[in-house]
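Job type: complex structure
Entries:
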Amino acid sequence: MLLTGRVEAKKRLGPYHYLRVRLPQAISPLEAGHFALLETPAPEAILLRPFSLFDFEEGESPWIAFLFQRAGKGTEALASVGVGRQLRVIVPLGTPFPLPHGGEEVLLLAGGVGIAPLFPLARRLSRGGLSIRLLWGARSPDGLPYPLLRSLRRWGVEVAVATEDGGLGHRGLVTELLQDQLPSRGVLYLCGPEGMIREALSALPPKGVRSFVSLEERMACGVGACLGCAVKTREGYRLLCSEGPVLPGEVLQWR
Amino acid sequence: MEVDLRVEIGPLHLQNPVMPAAGTFGYGDEYMGIVDPRDFGALVTKSLSLDPTEGNPPPRLWEVPGGLINSIGLENIGVEAFIQQKLPFLRELGVPLIVSFFGQDPEDYARCAERLSEALGIAALEANLSCPNVKKGGMAFGSDPALTHRVVEGIKGATDLPLLVKLPPDPYHALELARAAQEAGAEALTLVNTLPALAVDPDRGRPRLGGITGGLSGPALKPVALRIVYQVSGALPIPVIGVGGIRDHRDAIEFVLAGATAVQVGTATFSDPRAIPKVIDGLRSYLREHGLSSLADIRGKLHEAQVEAPAEG
């Protein structure tokens, strides 16, 4: 749905930016893994920018929130956008994370700002009564903002962290925590840098653990019309906007 | 005053002169629920080939100041799948359907046109003779007047549908190419396609796009497109559909003043999916505000000015 939202709140969370956008009307059910295309106030920007839903409220006064880091002109402009600013937004887009089957253990793996789509998934699953474990890594402790860790723990999520500088938790890469945590039967949800995803997927046992990755690619239309956001998979090109952004790990193919 | 946005492009009668540019509105069903194509003057599909085309490796998009470079590589599901899976829905929409297509060689173009004209519900074809992102089936045909003539003639021999021919933004040969397409029987020209372009990552020493080069669209292309529309429409009677960087109705009016009968909106749809209906509404308001009854009142008005067309380079 194409809407005009209004920036309602923004704050820094460590190296990340949090942006909450009030929506003018109720929209169809939002789920973890969905994304939105958001207008950026950069004067040069041509395209809307895709962001995973980091948080959202449905019902009569709905809003959606994003967690992002500065990566270019669009995100720089969004980082300094004023509260009250109206922004065009198309939401919800994409296909959300598939839910675990009964009896599957659930493990989440996030690298840095890759926590964004996994945050609402962790909440959803833990409120559903599942015991959830999250491995979250960053370069340094500021990449693991305390307010987010606190929320996760409050929901009952068992969180283990890793930092490359050793400032918090395991010293090293978050994937090094994976070895001891991998279930024999379960589902792994992940989002983060390509290196982390590749390492994690290669660590999976040949059978028993399903994996779902939230991916990122440059995007234009968001609805499957322009074919701009194709990623190479073992089954040919897949569009991240309409067939993703969540894809099963086993179909991914790296360039 | 009652304003009338209806236009005729050869045998095509449209309720208004605004349509999407090929490739920016998919096969017409993707944007349902976000924007209603029934309001458009026509619906133009993604370019189709006889066989499905896989397209170029990612990344396929790179934004630059004032524009967008794409390297989609004409990925499409192929004519048969289009006819089976997409056409029934498009037929039901009731908006005039213009199917864009391309081939690997002149015979391939003709076969593709022939197969499409066997299907019901297509109002016109648009031959893409100018995609910069494939080696064949693109630029090579649209940059050579003799080859353009041959391809268009072959298509016209294979279909009774009205034919639009989409040409590249080649300011030095636009008129020759346009003339070749007109003489070979094209009913209208779509001017222009994207401009071949390259973006480089200076840190990694690599191209930004998986297909290495791409096609530039968006506002940066508009002045180039306008000049070609102006030049061709001033010299030839064939109707011209202007396309290149149109974001709002004022941009569209510029193309009409330069001589365009209709316009296509492409990249702007990505920034605002309601760009096309906004252009249509804006044109209506513009006519009212200026006391005009139709766009024909101002079409090609630039040619009345004492401006000499530049010599052909």
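Summary: Residues 105-208 of chain A form a domain with the Rossmann fold fold (CATH 3.40.50.80). Chain A touches chain B at residues 1-2, 39, 44-48, 88, 90, 217-221, 223-232, 236-237, 242, 255 (CB under 8 Å).
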